[in-house]
């Protein structure tokens, strides 16, 4: 389903909420900024409409998103406070709306972090949030940079997971391949049980892209191919992240490569291990930052925390004549690309 235009206009009242503006859209939904006139509280309203019978699964997906979110309580996961259903003549469901926490930030794919300490902090926050989901019996099953909103707080960048649309109970075997091609785990492609280690892989692929600007090879072939999926033993092993970006700390490189192992049994046991390693890496980065600043007072330069002056995220390239370390979007870019130094 694809909604060409928002169904609701600014100033309209929808289920008791006044619409301020449309915030964006997904493959099967529109999201609006709305306000409760009684409490003055501002919310995000996600609207999924059934255009034809094929859209029923999107309604079911939105309902499941609410059901899972209502069982979670974590500062790094967007809260969904209310589910609204509309039916036609009491016969079948036509619309589902979710009343959600407003998240003021930019997704990590649109604005990747510029410094390692910020990147690792965001990874660690995301891993803790996913660990919370696992403790409650759920897998996220679609972690990627687009699903991590980066907000500014007094303590630095704050990660907020915004989409639980593919989330499911741990151990679920899905009836169809679901996930994002550049981040999908082999067991998702081959429709095996979704486990906490599936989320570990998805997060590992997300970390890999963030610090290298490249995607890991997955079980879904790219370009023209005679096969629809690749068997585990034929999936190419990704280059070590540190080969692409030599500035990546050794422990972070080891963790990322551990997370994207093909066989789930070869990945970290659980998200708790991922959090622990990320906390250690972050501590070392912050200590090195303090030391670097001390050296700066003596006339030395600081560079150890910068991701990479030349990191080139896929979809953009260095523009000749631009300032050193600045990336500008080209005709094949998917969106604005910020400087990385």
Observed structural traits:
7 helices, alpha+beta, 2 domains, disordered C terminus, 3-stranded antiparallel beta sheet, 341 residues, globular, 6-stranded antiparallel beta sheet, 13 strands
Description:
The chain has 2 domains: 88 residues, 2-Layer Sandwich (Phosphorylase Kinase, domain 1); 180 residues, Transferase(Phosphotransferase) domain 1 (Transferase(Phosphotransferase), domain 1). Strand 1 and strand 2 form a beta hairpin. It contains 7 helices and 13 strands. The strands form 4 sheets. The protein has a 6-stranded antiparallel beta sheet, covered by helices on one side. A 3-stranded antiparallel beta sheet has the order 7-9-10. With 341 residues, it is α+β, with helices and mostly antiparallel strands. The chain is globular and about 60 Å long. The C terminus is likely disordered.
What is the H-and-E element order?
EEEEHEEEHEEEEHHHHHEE
- Between the first and last Cα atoms, what is the distance in angstroms? 40 Å
User: Which regions contain 5 or more consecutive residues with pLDDT less than 50?
Assistant: 298-303, 315-341
Helix content: 25-40%
Radius of gyration: 21 Å
Mean pLDDT: 85
CATH superfamily of the largest domain: Transferase(Phosphotransferase) domain 1
What is the global morphology? globular
Spatially, the strands of the biggest sheet line up as: 1-2-3-4-6-5
Number of structural units classed as domains: 2
Q: What amount of the residues lies in strands?
A: 15-25%
Going by helix content, strand content and strand pairing, the class is alpha+beta
The top level CATH class name of the largest domain: Mainly Alpha
Largest sheet entry: 6 strands, antiparallel
CATH architecture of the largest domain: Orthogonal Bundle
Question: What is the tally of beta strands?
Answer: 13
Number of helices: 7
CATH topology value of the largest domain: Transferase(Phosphotransferase), domain 1
């Amino acid at each position: 389903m694809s909604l060409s235009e928002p169904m609701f206009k600014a100033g309209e009242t929808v289920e008791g909420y006044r619409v301020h503006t449309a915030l964006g859209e997904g493959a099967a939904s529109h999201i609006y900024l709305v306000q409760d006139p009684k409490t003055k509280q501002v919310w995000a309203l996600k609207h999924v409409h059934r255009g034809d019978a094929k859209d029923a699964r999107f309604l079911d997906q939105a309902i499941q998103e609410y059901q899972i979110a209502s069982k979670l309580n974590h500062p790094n996961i967007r809260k969904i406070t209310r589910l609204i259903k509309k039916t036609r003549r009491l016969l079948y469901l036509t619309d589902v709306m979710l009343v959600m926490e407003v998240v003021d930030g930019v997704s990590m794919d649109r604005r990747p972090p510029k410094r390692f300490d910020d990147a690792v902090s965001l990874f660690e926050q995301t891993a803790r949030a996913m660990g919370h989901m696992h403790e409650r019996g759920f897998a996220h099953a679609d972690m990627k940079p687009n699903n991590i909103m980066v907000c500014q707080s007094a303590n630095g960048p704050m990660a907020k997971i915004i989409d639980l649309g593919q989330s499911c109970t741990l151990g679920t075997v899905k009836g169809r391949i679901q996930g994002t091609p550049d981040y999908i785990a082999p067991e998702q492609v081959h429709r095996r049980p979704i486990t906490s280690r599936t989320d570990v892989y998805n997060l590992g692929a997300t970390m890999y892209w963030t610090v290298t600007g490249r995607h890991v090879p997955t079980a879904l072939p790219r370009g023209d191919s005679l096969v629809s999926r690749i068997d585990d033993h034929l999936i190419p092993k990704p280059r070590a992240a540190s080969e692409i970006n030599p500035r990546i700390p050794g422990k972070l490189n080891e963790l990322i490569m551990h997370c994207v192992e093909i066989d789930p049994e070869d990945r970290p046991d659980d998200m708790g291990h991922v959090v622990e390693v990320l906390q250690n890496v972050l501590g070392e980065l912050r200590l090195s930052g303090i030391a670097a600043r001390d050296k700066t007072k003596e006339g030395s330069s600081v560079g150890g925390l910068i991701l990479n002056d030349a990191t080139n995220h896929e979809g953009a390239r260095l523009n000749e004549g631009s300032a050193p370390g600045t990336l500008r979007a080209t005709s094949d870019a998917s969106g604005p690309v910020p400087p990385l130094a």
